[in-house]
Design a protein that fits this description.
By secondary structure, the chain is mainly beta. The protein has a single domain, classed as M1 Pyruvate Kinase, Domain 3 (Beta Barrel). It is 13% helix and 36% strand. It has 3 helices and 11 strands, in the order E-E-E-E-E-H-E-E-E-H-H-E-E-E. It has a 7-stranded mixed barrel. Strands 4-3-10 form a 3-stranded antiparallel beta sheet, with no helix packed on it. Strand 5, helix 1 and strand 6 form a beta-alpha-beta unit. The longest helix has 10 residues. The two termini are 15 Å apart.
């Protein structure tokens, strides 16, 4: 089982608004991240991996910060690629990965070519459904839960 770390949490107060960094956030089962405008919507929580973002920035010779991707969580040390159906555990909370996050045209507004570079290999991140309510903290351990434990 690989082990990673939660490096950052971001939330938006309004649609299209700036991503604000948080040290901690509250997750609600079946609803998502309390502090984010998308709370209760179809996309409960979005996650990107630091390694994928770093590789994309190298490809594009850029140094945009990862919050440019507009995801809620930044993890390191685990791969999100092909993780649909898997359970990601952060602290006492579990998130079921429901699919790949497809980058939108807004990415090219930030950096030409960013949308295309994020498309392969789940570089744009993953969408998840919150299975357990609780608080998550930047710096917490992130692991894939074994299927037998679910």
């Amino acid at each position: 089982m690989s082990e990673g770390k939660l490096l950052a949490i971001w939330a938006r107060k309004e649609w299209g608004g700036e991503m604000s960094p948080l040290d901690a956030a509250n997750l609600v089962e079946g609803k998502g991240l309390v502090e984010d405008v998308s709370f209760g919507g179809r996309r409960q929580i979005t996650i990107i991996e630091e390694e994928a973002w770093t590789n994309v920035m190298k490809q594009l010779s850029s140094d945009l910060p990862p919050e440019t991707r507009r995801a809620n969580l930044l993890v390191s040390g685990i791969s999100l690629k092909e993780s649909r159906g898997q359970i990601l555990k952060i602290g006492d909370c579990r998130i079921k990965i429901t699919g790949e996050t497809k980058p939108c045209a807004a990415m090219d507004a930030k950096l030409p070519g960013l949308r295309k570079a994020l498309k392969p290999d789940w570089n744009g991140g993953a969408i998840g459904k919150v299975l357990d309510s609780g608080k998550i903290l930047v710096g917490e351990k992130v692991i894939w839960e074994d299927a037998e434990e679910v």
